[in-house]
Design goal:
281 residues; alpha/beta; Rossmann fold; 44% helix; 15% strand
Length: 281
Amino acid sequence: MFERENQQVYVPDGSDPLEALGRTTHLCVAAHQDDIEIMAVDGILRAFDDPEVHFSGCIVGDGRGFPKKGHYEQFSPDELVAIRNQEQKNAARIGHYSAQVFLGYPSKEVKQPGNQALIDDLRELLRLTQPDVIYTHNPADKHPTHIGVLLRLLEALRGMPRELQPKQLLGCEAWRDLDWLPDDKKVLFDLSSHKQLQKELVEVFESQIEGGKDYTGASLGRRAAHATFFQSHATDTVNAMGFGMDLTPLLDDPQLDPATFVKSLLLEFQQEVLDLIEKTK
């Protein structure tokens, strides 16, 4: 299935890995341990509430090279990778994931255009899961490894027949919010339910939080802020919200350049801002 030494498939309920992957309806392909729990909560909550929905995660990167301080400064890179992978497994167990895949590629290789080994592994993952929805990083994210994952995933998907591709490919929020997207271009995720679960899913990554990043407060705060600031002339209808970018047009048109696609959204945002200023001068 996946042949590199550091690759593995973890199944929280102990069922057969092929069965666990095969029942997947919602899949997140992310760069690092904890990215899934920050950006793909929509899929996790859907599967948590609906027995017909099954969520699986895939971490593409090996998890090395993150900033750290305090207690975790004393650990070697290999020890920290093992800790991060265990934390990811704990999140998969808490969130009732169908399967959690680790591909274990260094960031340098993730960012390498046309990396055939990685593309082949992603294509194998897609063949085994055939999900209806894929969550991944959005092309306006500012982390280069996140962009690398998106582009390698897109390369893998575009090498498959459209009927085997997901119905939806969604770019999600991690290192840059999507509140700037025009409202009619936002994919809205109602994240009002299971607040304690959402908190636990991020808190499990102790090596990140104690290591110097308050991802729990930041993630939950962003969701609350989106819910309140989404509409300026209406009361809140939800108390936590996430935004997604619909990347499905990049599958429908294999010739559409990702940079051209996101540039059109940025220009639309620019025009929206300028039009409002002109109207109220």
